[in-house]
Amino acid sequence: MERKKATEDMKRAFENPRGVQVDKVEKLLNALNTTYTRPAYEVPRLLLWDPQLALTRVYAMQKDMAMCLASAGKVLTSLGFIIVGADSSAASFAVVKWGLIVDHLMETFLHLKAAFSAIRADKDSKYADECARLAYKIVVGEDASFDTLYGNSRD
After folding, report:
1. How many angstroms separate the CA atoms of 51 and 54, rounded?
2. CA-CA distances (angstroms) from residue 36 to 74, 123, 151?
3. Is 41 inside any structural domain?
4. How many structural domains is the chain composed of?
């Protein structure tokens, strides 16, 4: 029952895209996350990744790159990925273990790419681009059309 109520509250917090209640969404996502007893790499948080990605989009629109990095990292973690360096620290970004592959995974990696680029973490930005391309290849079955859909993200 706790998950159902938190999910309904989160939908209400996202009702107006220009007025997303960011603090409330963060709090609800954290509350939902605590309802799981096993780590996300064992039991991915299928209820969390989509609203977490929506929150990542909000941070990207607000040009809050530190929060965009952290939020995109939480998207990956909720899908069962084990990652390091998805923040503005000196640690290099790396995917230690891949998790579930979903159709918006490329977008998540492209948010990481843009945020790393904005903070001039060029090596991490390039790695996030490579991950986006790999995810696209897994989801679509080819990568020749990646640049057509997402632009030449290697620039």
Report:
1. 5
2. 15, 34, 38
3. yes
4. 1
How far, rounded to the nearest angstrom, does the alpha carbon of residue 138 sit from its chain's CA centroid? 17
Dihedral sign for Cα atoms in the order 82, 87, 91, 92: positive
Asked if 92 and 128 count as a contact pair (C-beta separation under 8 A), the reply is: no
Q: Spell out the residues 6+ positions from residue 36 whose beta carbon is closer than 8 angstroms to its own.
A: 43, 45
Residue 94, helix vs strand vs coil: strand
Residue 58's H or E segment, with its range, is helix 49-61
* Separate counts of helices (H) and strands (E) for the chain: 7, 2
- Kindly report the CATH number assigned to the domain that includes residue 107: 1.25.40.10
Nearest-angstrom CA–CA distance, 151 and 84: 27
Query: In this predicted model, what pLDDT tens digit does every residue of 78-112 receive, in sequence order?
Result: 999 999 999 877 889 999 999 999 999 999 999 99
